[in-house]
C-alpha cells in the first residue's frame, strides 16, 4: 500500500502504478505469492542477528554446508545432464 500510495515517490505518486498493478493483478512469477513466509523468515533472521553467538554459529554452519554447491559445477551438470550440451 505504501508503494501504491506514493510514499517512495512523493514527486510522482503514480510512478509505480504499473509495477504494483502487475504484482497484484497478474503475478506471473509469483513474486508476492510467498511474501508472508518471506517476511516471517526475515523476522527470524533479524532475531538471530541480535544473538551474536547463535548468529556466528549459523553463519559458520551455512558456509561449511555450501561445500558441494558451486555455480560452475551446477551449470556444467545442467548442461550435460539436462541439455546434453557437452557430450
UniProtKB/TrEMBL annotation:
Alphabetized UniProt keyword annotations: Carbohydrate metabolism, Glycosyltransferase, Pyridoxal phosphate, Transferase
Listed EC numbers: 2.4.1.1
GO annotation terms (biological process): glycogen catabolic process
Cellular component terms per the entry's GO annotation: cytoplasm
Any Pfam family: Phosphorylase
Cofactor(s) recorded in Swiss-Prot or TrEMBL: pyridoxal 5'-phosphate
SUPFAM superfamilies, sorted: UDP-Glycosyltransferase/glycogen phosphorylase
Superkingdom per UniProt: Bacteria
Top enzyme class: transferase
Gene3D superfamilies for this protein: Glycogen Phosphorylase B
Catalysed reactions, as listed in the record: [(1->4)-alpha-D-glucosyl](n) + phosphate = [(1->4)-alpha-D-glucosyl](n-1) + alpha-D-glucose 1-phosphate
A GO term, aspect molecular function: glycogen phosphorylase activity
Function according to Swiss-Prot or TrEMBL: Allosteric enzyme that catalyzes the rate-limiting step in glycogen catabolism, the phosphorolytic cleavage of glycogen to produce glucose-1-phosphate, and plays a central role in maintaining cellular and organismal glucose homeostasis.
PANTHER family per record: GLYCOGEN PHOSPHORYLASE, GLYCOGEN PHOSPHORYLASE, LIVER FORM
Family: Belongs to the glycogen phosphorylase family.
Protein name: Alpha-1,4 glucan phosphorylase
Organism of this sequence: Pseudomonas fluorescens
Lineage: Bacteria, Pseudomonadati, Pseudomonadota, Gammaproteobacteria, Pseudomonadales
Amino acid at each position: 500500500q505504501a508503494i501504491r500510495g506514493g510514499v517512495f515517490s512523493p514527486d510522482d505518486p503514480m510512478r509505480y502504478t504499473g509495477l504494483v498493478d502487475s504484482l497484484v493483478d497478474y503475478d506471473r512469477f509469483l513474486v508476492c505469492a510467498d511474501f508472508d513466509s518471506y517476511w516471517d523468515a526475515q523476522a527470524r533472521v533479524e532475531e538471530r542477528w541480535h544473538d551474536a553467538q547463535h548468529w556466528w554459529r549459523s553463519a559458520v554452519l551455512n558456509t561449511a554446508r555450501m561445500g558441494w554447491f558451486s555455480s560452475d559445477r551446477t551449470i556444467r551438470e545442467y548442461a550435460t545432464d539436462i541439455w546434453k550440451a557437452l557430450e
